């Protein structure tokens, strides 16, 4: 069984003249984690020339709407004086375009507002003073958010009339009786009404003035469109240069930030961090070459580090795998990091998750969809952002689902397409059958017996997963020299013996009609005793005193609770895997429903039902099955050995537009 990657603590003493090259190497290699956090970004780094230039370039990128998602910082170089000058020239050439664009858009906004306001009152031909002085009428004219207009109308009800002015409804005329003016003003205030001053003799907007304002608006739109085309041409001719500048100055600003936070004297910087042991010699060779041997390097094993020995510091944990297994690492770290020097559970998770998904989602056609999607994601034909790194998982679960689908005879919920294959395979071993493993429940005794056997198989899978978790826990405790915890307790050897013996006894009783004997109860009772009373035995073996920490009575109460918890936990952990069989049966029933409905509709409609039904199953049931597989990993498998978490290896590295992890 693989263990976590072996680490070394490296202490570097670097001259000031070499610090940039050293940090550049460490950040690009992404294989060095600082021993402790360097703290928050310093003011000196924020005010550096590199950071200021990067900020200006980022503003330019935002103005030009240039997509920078493909920028790679790993191939960038630190900017030279010539790069500073070239970047400044680029920004100067953009400055005129920026100012003209801003002016044109401001002009367009003013033109639109003027025209909109004029159009709103173009049909008001009666003198406003004549209306306002009516003894029975109270008028209010002003601006309002069109989104609340209907709510305002409902709020005032029959107490007032609300008349929208203009097509955009951003201005209104509100009328009420003189007695209702206070209630109207209250409601208008609630909905953000802004009164407008209307000249007393105002009688509307002349048509020639309205036409003039409309022409001004159209000219402003034309000007903005011309500048948009000019900006597009500028982007086309300067995009590559801008992206190159962004990568270079982003790299430089991050490096300056790190440099400002390092422990240093006037001439020497000190860097201390963790490095995988297998990369240590190569790193030292590269650093010697970069600095022309002007560097001091010391390395320590974890057991030589005082903080690790005292238990104050945890050694970072790095997991090293191939493409398929490494895709499951995030599932591990989302729950917690294994302790350094313990068994790496990722290969087991990869196997268990794939098998569980395949059992619960058995369909050759639907599995083929996952397989093809995974291949396209791996080839970058389909780009789903951060999800592309999980392409091996899609390939794995797709293959497992296809294998299970071949056994159950399902292909896109159709049990007839694979019948020739199923009959050929079953015919090799006896009487040909339409399915190798029929899953659809039926009323005959054979089907019921087969269903119970499948549920038994589900529990057997759970037994393997639970047992693997216990073995990992016991092995981890022995590796950590925690002998007491390895032997006693519900997840130690005592609990394992209880669990395994009860399962073996149940099989003997069910399959061989065995009657439990006295020695059976003695083995179970002894295992339960050392599991329930594990704490005092753990303290005794590990040399902790006092052995009975909180008194005899408290120990007995704790033991009784632990005994009940041990029995209930192992029982629930086993029964929980019945859901695997239940979901497999549910999948078969869904397939039967889709097939039946498509046959009932027939023709093109039946084909549409098949496509729609399978799409729903692939998306929704695929998500549900994935969640259930993860849940079984978390609560039944991880809970056996994840009783203490470690520290994930988070190397210092440069990441464009997202800062670096230090």
General description of the model:
The chain is α+β, with helices and mostly antiparallel strands and 662 residues long. The chain is built from 24 helices and 11 strands. It has helices at 19-29, 43-46, 49-64, 81-120, 128-132, 149-156, 181-190, 207-261, 277-291, 306-310, 323-326, 329-335, 346-360, 364-378, 391-408, 419-427, 445-479, 483-487, 493-512, 518-532, 534-541, 552-575, 578-601, 603-641; strands at 7-15, 33-34, 138-143, 160-165, 171-176, 194-195, 263-264, 268-276, 295-300, 316-317, 647-648. Strands 1, 2, 7, 8 and 9 form a 5-stranded antiparallel beta sheet that branches. A hairpin with a 5-residue loop joins strand 4 and strand 5.
Give the overall average pLDDT: 86
Give the total of beta strands.
11
- The level of helicity is 55-70%
The structure class reads: alpha+beta
Radius of gyration: 37 Å
Q: Which ranges are low-confidence, i.e. pLDDT below 50, for 5 or more consecutive residues?
A: 130-136, 202-206, 658-662
Distance between the ends: 31 Å
User: Which overall shape is indicated by the principal axes computed on the Cα atoms?
Assistant: extended
What is the helix tally? Answer: 24
Largest sheet: 5 strands, antiparallel
Q: How much β-strand is present in the residues? A: 5-15%
